[in-house]
Design goal:
Helix content: 25-40%
Oligomer: single chain
Order of helices and strands: HEEEHEHEHEHHHHHEHEH
Number of domains: 1
Mean pLDDT: 90
Strand order of the largest sheet: 1-2-4-3-5-6-7-8
CATH topology: Rossmann fold
Number of strands: 8
Strand content: 5-15%
Number of helices: 11
Distance between the termini: 50 Å
Radius of gyration: 19 Å
Low-confidence stretches: 1-21
CATH superfamily: Alpha/Beta hydrolase fold, catalytic domain
CATH architecture: 3-Layer(aba) Sandwich
CATH class: Alpha Beta
Structural class: alpha/beta
Length: 341
């Protein structure tokens, strides 16, 4: 099934963002949305992470034997700082560049960090028969449930990147058991999956589309126990939409891709959020359109802040004058404001 191609991508004026404009100046040589996006895939150096680390696993509550895994980092200096829960995006894992960079950022500010692998991602692939999707908020709830009391004694602040951000919004807008959740942030989340799919499949994104589809197939085929029919559906998918329509939707109780996109759209949950939440996006994100964020500007609750930068690409935000990302700095400021209340 083909999808209509969007007429315009990321060209809207961003001067009138609710809660104030978000300043951003790109750092050379990462000029433009595409290079900002690609930087995370071109940088291969693994950052050394300070402090002590412990491997963690979290059983899920859906009756399966699946588990999520992660690495819990404790900073060298212990203090009364909340646990930072990092949730990766599509085809990512705890070792994605942006995950390690954000981990280091928060550890250097004496905050403990949990780098999570969603179900079937990273080294959780050997502990799961299923695979994460845009609406698997219950898995995040299971992680919050599975944290030891001392690990969340100073609260939990969750940060979701890309698809992980959409999953997080589904958690925040649902009947969540708080477990010390003091706030949250999303970065480049595809809050309207249908619109994001259309944009990704646009002609100008052909290389991105092929790359992501190949990665999605590789991840699923290598880490998930599939029937012969499911394996055939994955291999035969010629687009992200077909992958979701033939594999993701039926495997997770949705009628088809359209039903899956509509029922897992994080944008629909924003109005029900009652915990301080920061939503960050870039007007020149080549994968995820900014228009759904603008639609929410006039109707999001007071506890939700929406900031759209003029640049930054998709989970890029590599800014001038610092080695830290703009999104890490912006989230840090937001977290400090939450703590000061």
């Amino acid at each position: 099934m083909s999808l209509p191609i969007p007429a315009n991508q990321g060209t809207e004026n961003t001067n009138a963002v609710r809660h104030g404009a978000a300043g951003f100046k790109e750092r050379a040589p990462w000029w433009g949305g595409d290079l900002q996006t690609l930087r995370n895939y071109l940088i291969s150096k693994r950052l050394t992470l300070p402090g002590l680390s412990t491997r963690r696993s979290f059983p899920v509550s859906d009756g399966s034997d699946d588990q999520l895994t992660g690495t819990l980092h404790r900073p060298a200096a212990s203090g009364r700082q909340p646990l930072i829960l990092l949730i990766h995006g599509l085809t990512g894992c705890e070792d994605s560049v942006y995950m390690r960079e954000s981990t280091r950022f928060h550890l250097l500010r004496d905050r403990p960090v949990l780098r999570l692998n969603l179900r079937g991602a990273g080294n959780s692939g050997c502990l799961a028969r299923g695979y994460y999707h845009a609406g698997c908020a219950s898995d995040l709830q299971d992680v919050l449930d599975g944290l030891a009391p001392e690990e969340k004694s100073n609260g939990v602040f969750a940060i979701g990147f890309s698809l992980g951000g959409n999953i997080l919004l589904n958690l925040l807008g649902g009947p969540v058991r708080r477990h010390g959740l003091i706030g949250a942030a999303t970065v480049s989340a595809p809050i309207e999956p249908n619109e994001s799919c259309r944009q990704l499949m646009a002609p100008r994104n052909m290389l991105y589309h092929r790359f992501l589809l190949r990665r999605m197939k590789q991840d699923v085929l290598s880490s998930v126990a599939l029937t012969h029919k499911q394996r055939r559906a994955v291999r035969s998918a010629s687009s992200v939409y077909e992958f979701d329509d033939k594999f993701v939707a039926p495997c997770n109780g949705f009628l088809n891709a359209q039903d899956y996109y509509e029922k897992t759209a994080g944008a629909r949950q924003v109005g029900s959020i009652d915990v301080p939440t920061l939503m960050l996006h870039a007007s020149n994100d080549p994968w995820v359109p900014a228009s759904p964020y603008r639609t929410l500007q006039s109707r999001s609750p007071a506890c939700v802040r929406i900031a759209i930068a003029d640049g930054g690409g998709h989970v890029g935000f590599h800014a001038q004058g610092t080695s830290d990302t703009w999104h890490d700095q912006h989230i840090n400021n937001f977290l400090q404001s939450v703590q000061s209340v």
